[in-house]
Amino acid sequence: MILVFGVFLLMMGCSERMESSYVSLAEAKAGGGITRGWIPSSLADAVYAIREKHDLDTNEVWGTFRFPKGQDPLDPSIVESMSSDVIPKLSFRVSGVGFWPALLCPPIQASRASSEGFQFFSEPKSHFIFAINRDGGLGFYWSVKDGMP
pLDDT, tens digit, for every residue of 97-143? Predict the structure, then answer.
């Protein structure tokens, strides 16, 4: 029994997931979130209420942010729109990411997400994917370990 409890404690202590929140993109930049690769460089300056979680062992990253309605939250010179046939092929983990919506858990149903107002973009050079809801002023991003599909 003691051995089982010890293994449990060891496993719980091995988690290398860290979470941070930033009031603004300027605060995230000052805190090193972009240079460390936890926050995409393609976010526009108007983005705020940024929350990110990253895994130091796997380099996986998940995040959410808000932006003023009517403003573009992403730099269009860095991101590319994704076709709906690629969205269901996106493979990533979200277990343990409390702020992640069920709608965006893989496999993502592109038609359902689209009907909820989401559009998908990629930042190919950094392997980030974005789900943007312009009407709601809400965005999510995550890293794709094995590259883009």
Answer: 999 999 999 999 999 999 999 999 999 888 899 999 999 999 999 99
How far CA 47 is from CA of 19, 23, 59, in Å, comes to 18, 9, 23
Q: Which range of residues forms the domain containing residue 39? A: 17-143
For residue 138, report the phi and psi dihedrals to the nearest 5 degrees. -130, 135
Q: Are strands 17-24 and 48-55 parallel, antiparallel or unpaired?
A: antiparallel
Chain mean position to CA 136:
17
Which pTM does this prediction carry?
0.87
**Position 104 in a domain:** yes
In a domain, 26, yes or no: yes
Inter-residue contact 39 to 131 (CB < 8 Å): no
Which three-class secondary structure state does DSSP give residue 65?
strand
Q: Which amino acid is at 125?
A: K
Burial of 102 by CB count in 10 Å (0-12 exposed, 13-18 middle, 19+ buried)? exposed
**Does residue 12 lie within any of the structural domains?**
no
Dihedral (CA of 46, 52, 55, 58) sign: negative
Provide the β-strand partners of residue 22.
50
Indicate the residue type of 23.
Answer: V
